[in-house]
Amino acid sequence: MVKIILHGCNGRMGQMLTGLLKEDPQAEVAAGVDGYTGIANDYPVFPSIDECNVQADVVIDFSNAKAADGLLDYCVRTKTPVVLCTTGLSEEQLAKVEEAAKETAVLKSANMSLGINLLMKLLKEAAPTLAAAGFDIEIVEKHHNQKLDAPSGTALALADSINEASDGAYHYVYDRSQERKKRDSREIGISAVRGGTIVGDHDVIFAGTDEVITFEHRAYSRAVFGKGAIQAAKFLAGKPAGRYDMSDVI
Ligand SMILES: NC(=O)C1=CN([C@@H]2O[C@H](COP(=O)(O)OP(=O)(O)OC[C@H]3O[C@@H](n4cnc5c(N)ncnc54)[C@H](OP(=O)(O)O)[C@@H]3O)[C@@H](O)[C@H]2O)C=CC1
Ligand SMILES: O=C(O)C1=N[C@H](C(=O)O)C[C@H](O)C1
């Protein structure tokens, strides 16, 4: 039985995982951590990771970027593997993730769904051919009105996949409101829409002369992220220190 600490257990994703893990015969929640205590869970909940005195095989984190430093310190100190799903980390925090991975197993992924992780592979194959044929690349993401970070971590990861396959040729443009010039061919435009309860939509648009190819991904339920995170946690439990991602799992 894989024992899991849910970091951010009372949020939207934390509660999705709580439900999924109740039905899972191979994994269980050993403890939760969340500042919000208004939910009665059937596991102990601590207000911060430093106050958590329960040992586990792995932490799954869907919380807040502000919580990342404390969580990484805890995982390094206790040598607990961690599945990091929170988005919006700063450059300094991303560097800290790399440092932490020297001491414990860290799997970081902006999107735990099978569809987005497969799309990243497809983009690596398609983008160089389409770019050579002069197609412009734009990414549009849409999320619910409670989301804190923009653009989404997934939109950035999709852009990074294209860029990696193109020897880093692209730069990212998030706002054209001040521009008085045409787009250049080496930019990836990234636009964010926020509204209602949209779970997570991502469109990668390749716009060429007289033809457009759009890769679309629609998440209709947070279950797709939750299932991926549990699969990742089972994979990561007991793994040596190092940096892992969803391509190691799927
Ligand atoms: N990788 C992926 O596949 C996915 C990633 N995400 C990312 O996961 C994160 C959480 O998303 P979501 O569940 O929708 O957000 P929510 O705001 O619904 O939940 C986050 C929870 O974390 C709690 N929290 C805040 N600070 C801490 C802390 N220091 N320690 C422990 N818990 C804390 C919040 O409590 P309080 O309300 O009191 O602040 C809240 O209950 C976001 O960054 C989101 O982008 C989301 C979906 C999929
Ligand atoms: O905040 C969310 O909800 C989501 N965040 C992730 C992101 O920023 O990419 C993944 C998913 O799209 C949902």
TrEMBL record:
<dbReference type="GO" id="GO:0005829">
    <property type="term" value="C:cytosol"/>
</dbReference>
<dbReference type="InterPro" id="IPR023940">
    <property type="entry name" value="DHDPR_bac"/>
</dbReference>
<feature type="binding site">
    <location>
        <begin position="8"/>
        <end position="13"/>
    </location>
    <ligand>
        <name>NAD(+)</name>
    </ligand>
</feature>
<feature type="active site" description="Proton donor/acceptor">
    <location>
        <position position="143"/>
    </location>
</feature>
<comment type="subunit">
    <text>Homotetramer.</text>
</comment>
<protein>
    <recommendedName>
        <fullName>4-hydroxy-tetrahydrodipicolinate reductase</fullName>
        <ecNumber>1.17.1.8</ecNumber>
    </recommendedName>
</protein>
<keyword id="KW-0520">NAD</keyword>
<dbReference type="Pfam" id="PF01113">
    <property type="entry name" value="DapB_N"/>
</dbReference>
<dbReference type="GO" id="GO:0016726">
    <property type="term" value="F:oxidoreductase activity, acting on CH or CH2 groups, NAD or NADP as acceptor"/>
</dbReference>
<feature type="binding site">
    <location>
        <position position="34"/>
    </location>
    <ligand>
        <name>NAD(+)</name>
    </ligand>
</feature>
<comment type="pathway">
    <text>Amino-acid biosynthesis; L-lysine biosynthesis via DAP pathway; (S)-tetrahydrodipicolinate from L-aspartate: step 4/4.</text>
</comment>
<keyword id="KW-0028">Amino-acid biosynthesis</keyword>
<dbReference type="Pfam" id="PF05173">
    <property type="entry name" value="DapB_C"/>
</dbReference>
<comment type="function">
    <text>Catalyzes the conversion of 4-hydroxy-tetrahydrodipicolinate (HTPA) to tetrahydrodipicolinate.</text>
</comment>
<dbReference type="GO" id="GO:0050661">
    <property type="term" value="F:NADP binding"/>
</dbReference>
<feature type="active site" description="Proton donor">
    <location>
        <position position="147"/>
    </location>
</feature>
<feature type="binding site">
    <location>
        <begin position="109"/>
        <end position="112"/>
    </location>
    <ligand>
        <name>NAD(+)</name>
    </ligand>
</feature>
<comment type="similarity">
    <text>Belongs to the DapB family.</text>
</comment>
<feature type="domain" description="Dihydrodipicolinate reductase C-terminal">
    <location>
        <begin position="115"/>
        <end position="250"/>
    </location>
</feature>
<dbReference type="GO" id="GO:0051287">
    <property type="term" value="F:NAD binding"/>
</dbReference>
<keyword id="KW-0560">Oxidoreductase</keyword>
<keyword id="KW-0963">Cytoplasm</keyword>
<dbReference type="InterPro" id="IPR022663">
    <property type="entry name" value="DapB_C"/>
</dbReference>
<feature type="domain" description="Dihydrodipicolinate reductase N-terminal">
    <location>
        <begin position="2"/>
        <end position="112"/>
    </location>
</feature>
<dbReference type="InterPro" id="IPR036291">
    <property type="entry name" value="NAD(P)-bd_dom_sf"/>
</dbReference>
<feature type="binding site">
    <location>
        <position position="144"/>
    </location>
    <ligand>
        <name>(S)-2,3,4,5-tetrahydrodipicolinate</name>
    </ligand>
</feature>
<feature type="binding site">
    <location>
        <begin position="153"/>
        <end position="154"/>
    </location>
    <ligand>
        <name>(S)-2,3,4,5-tetrahydrodipicolinate</name>
    </ligand>
</feature>
<dbReference type="GO" id="GO:0008839">
    <property type="term" value="F:4-hydroxy-tetrahydrodipicolinate reductase"/>
</dbReference>
<dbReference type="GO" id="GO:0019877">
    <property type="term" value="P:diaminopimelate biosynthetic process"/>
</dbReference>
<keyword id="KW-0457">Lysine biosynthesis</keyword>
<keyword id="KW-0220">Diaminopimelate biosynthesis</keyword>
<feature type="binding site">
    <location>
        <begin position="85"/>
        <end position="87"/>
    </location>
    <ligand>
        <name>NAD(+)</name>
    </ligand>
</feature>
<dbReference type="InterPro" id="IPR022664">
    <property type="entry name" value="DapB_N_CS"/>
</dbReference>
<dbReference type="InterPro" id="IPR000846">
    <property type="entry name" value="DapB_N"/>
</dbReference>
<dbReference type="GO" id="GO:0009089">
    <property type="term" value="P:lysine biosynthetic process via diaminopimelate"/>
</dbReference>
<keyword id="KW-0521">NADP</keyword>
